[in-house]
Design a protein that fits this description.
Layout (H helix, E strand, L loop, with lengths): L8 H13 L3 H13 L4 H42 L4 H16 L3 E8 L4 E8 L4 H4 L2 E3 L3 H9 L3 E3 L12 H10 L3 E9 L2 E10 L7 H35 L3 H25 L4 H12 L2 E5 L5 E3 L8 H11 L3 E3 L2 E8 L2 E9 L6 H41 L5 H10 L8 E8 L7 H15 L5 E5 L2 E7 L19 H19 L3 E5 L6 H20 L6 E3 H4 L1 H6 L5 H19 L3 H10 L4 H8 L3 H15 L6 H17 L2
Helix pairs in contact: 1-2, 1-3, 2-3, 3-4, 3-8, 4-8, 8-9, 9-10, 9-12, 10-12, 12-13, 14-15, 19-23, 20-21, 21-22
């Protein structure tokens, strides 16, 4: 039986049990303390100390993942509340309750301005026990909320009672004291750059709020602002309809147009309720307006419909942003899709040169719905990209540590690592030594490039790595290195060329992209990444920065110019089909090919060298052609084959 004083195994098992049970952080320190009390040797204590530190890191990571999962679930639920046709108070109450739950505070509350009274009042509270606090009214500029409203920035205090940054009043301090609040954080509800309320979370004991908690509360505040804006829009619509019902014939005709716009709004709301995507909204608006709708991203690439003429489009989008309305662009109409002042894309309407006021408002309302959908999609994509980036980093750093675990993680994220993928390695054309800001911009461009696809991308070292499913890569064809082989190498080259061109446009500077051969499985994908990295370095040495290429497209130049000089990789890539065939069948295709080239392409001399009949040589070379392709004996291809044969011979393989 193992003596716990001379072995660390019992302590390690105990650490694993603590991780599995989700024990508190303090419990992990007890393991080392117990071992020290039992008189364990210094070496064992050192090993337990290291294991405890690693276990705490895993424990902290798991806790962060659980917290992020809870936050994302709450944001999804809040988005669902916004999409559902629920009362405004119910939506605001749900947002405040989730803010309190996610931040773990004693209370949470939301204040709104009262324009008639010239002050602000408590609209919704959760966790409050004081009637005085629940009915508190605040003059503009007073207290922490007044500072948030004036500056449109979040503020937090670990102890409100002693914080002199805020204008204290007797009424506010009495309410805070009656509720027993100490630590308070407040964030603004912004709509079009204007503060329309303040969302608070508070504790009855001193506490410092982290930046992550501030960001989470700001996101919930944005949802509350959307709910208020939607309620106001619906109220305005109902008021307009009530006025139109009492008008004359001309007004009734106009009322019919507004009702049509309301039907369109309801149609768009119904689409959002059913979880529709941007193309569904575009199709619905096109049917309502009797025209053709295209939705473009910020780079002018179509998200739905066909691309618009680039000439003059940027000026029209800028005019729409300035005026806050749709503008005419030739025979078409253009409306900027905005989130506040941030551009998210553009709506283009064709086929309706004359657009009435009601239809124009419907077109503009469609841009608001499109902005909401794009924001929701971006929030989900950013969260997924963070997790996928962690997967990609682990895949490239230690692929052989737990291949099955990596594959399972990828499958949970919608990435099947068991299927062939093309690994693209991208760097700013100014590398090496490129500033970190350029790499950051390139990473953002890669995120937009992969948006809506099944690929993943992340910064890795001094490059940005993209993992693209092979079936999403451009179709193969005949490139400068010949037709596609069975491994689809030419598709990898085309994928690299397309990525280099698109990433350069999105990032605003030239980008060099290298591609490894399509591969499946963590270990093979890591090897393909190394191949793509060598390809990038070879392109740099060749003076071809800003271009895209595959390792196979560079051929032996990749071996000569790449930093790694991967002889085995080049030999395997060039002679792989022959080597595999010889290994499976016990044939001598590689030896026959070497003899053929050594004899200057003479079948007669080759058969003497091999001591076989000339027909045998012909049959073997026919098999070589089947495995390598019809161009195996062309000058450029034969040069690579002869170089690979010589490298194989010299390496003793």
């Amino acid at each position: 039986m193992t003596d716990p004083r001379t072995s660390s195994a019992p302590a390690l098992r105990r650490l694993l049990d603590l991780l599995a049970s989700g024990a508190a952080t303090e419990d992990f320190a007890d393991v080392l303390a117990d071992a020290r009390r039992q008189g364990a040797p210094a070496a064992v204590l050192s090993e337990i100390d290291d294991a405890t530190w690693q276990a705490l890191r895993v424990h902290r990571t798991l806790r962060q993942h659980r917290r992020r999962e809870a936050e994302l679930t709450a944001l999804f639920d809040t988005a669902g509340d916004l999409a559902a046709s629920r009362e405004l108070d119910t939506v605001l109450q749900a947002i405040v309750r989730r803010a309190r739950m996610l931040l773990g505070t004693d209370t949470a509350y939301l204040t709104l301005p009262d324009e008639a009274a010239g002050d602000t009042y408590m609209r919704v509270t959760d966790g409050s026990v004081s009637v005085l606090f629940q009915n508190l009214r605040l003059s503009l500029g007073d207290g922490l909320g007044g500072l948030v409203a004036q500056t449109a920035r979040p503020y937090a205090t670990p102890d409100y009672r002693t914080d002199e940054r805020f204008h204290h009043t007797g009424t506010i301090d009495a309410g805070v004291l009656d509720e027993g609040l100490v630590a308070i954080i407040g964030v603004p509800l912004l709509l079009g750059g204007q503060v329309i309320g303040v969302l608070f979370a508070a504790d009855r004991s001193p506490r410092a709020f982290s930046p992550d908690e501030v960001a989470l509360l700001c996101t919930l505040a944005a949802h509350a602002a959307i709910a208020l804006d939607t309620a106001k829009s619906l109220a305005d619509t109902r008021a307009a309809l009530a006025e139109l019902n009492s008008a004359n014939e001309l007004i009734r005709a106009h009322s019919a147009a507004v009702q049509r716009a309301e039907q369109g709004h309801d149609r768009l709301t119904d689409l959002v309720l059913r979880g529709a995507e941007v193309p569904d909204v575009a199709a619905a608006v096109a049917a309502l307006l009797g025209g053709e709708i295209a939705v473009l991203d910020t780079g002018g690439e179509p998200l739905a419909g066909r691309a618009a003429a680039a000439e003059g489009l940027a000026e029209a989008v800028a005019a729409s942003r300035t005026e806050g309305r749709s503008v005419r662009h030739g025979e078409a109409w253009v409306c900027a899709v905005l989130a506040g002042q941030e551009p998210l894309g553009t709506l283009v309407l064709r086929g309706r040169p004359d657009l009435g006021d009601a239809d124009r408002r419907l077109f503009e309302r469609a841009s608001v719905v499109t902005a909401l959908l794009l924001l929701l999609r971006r929030s989900v994509a950013e969260a997924e990209n963070r997790v996928r980036g962690e997967l990609l980093a682990d895949l490239l750093t230690a692929p052989d540590r737990d291949p099955a675990g990596l594959t399972a993680r990828g499958r949970r994220l919608g990435v099947d690592l068991g299927r062939p993928h093309v690994v693209l390695v991208a760097e700013p054309a100014g590398a090496p030594g490129t500033a970190a800001t350029d790499r950051c911009r390139l990473a953002g461009a890669a995120e937009r490039y992969l948006f809506g696809s099944r690929g993943i991308g992340a910064e890795h070292g001094e490059t940005v790595v993209l993992l693209v499913p092979a079936e999403d890569a451009p179709p193969g064809g005949r490139g400068p290195d010949g037709p596609d082989g069975p491994d689809g190498t030419d598709s990898a080259r085309l994928a690299a060329e397309r990525a280099a061109e698109r990433l350069a446009r999105l990032a605003g500077f030239p980008v060099t992209v290298g591609a490894g051969r399509p591969a499946a499985g963590p270990v093979a994908l890591a090897a393909a990444h190394a191949e793509g990295l060598r390809c990038v370095r070879a392109l740099r040495v060749l003076g071809r920065s800003g271009e895209g290429a595959s390792a196979r497209a560079l051929g032996f130049l990749g071996v000569l110019l790449g930093d790694g000089h991967d002889v085995d990789g080049f030999v395997g890539a060039t002679l792989g089909p022959l080597l595999d065939y010889d290994a499976r069948r016990g044939t001598e295709l590689v030896r026959t090919l070497r003899a053929y080239f050594d004899c200057g392409g003479s079948l007669t001399r080759a058969k003497d060298e091999l001591h076989v009949h000339v027909n045998t040589v012909v049959q073997r070379l026919d098999r070589v052609e089947v495995l390598l392709g019809q161009d195996w004996n062309h000058p450029e291809r034969s040069l690579e084959l002869q170089l690979a044969l010589r490298l194989q011979l010299l390496s003793g393989a």
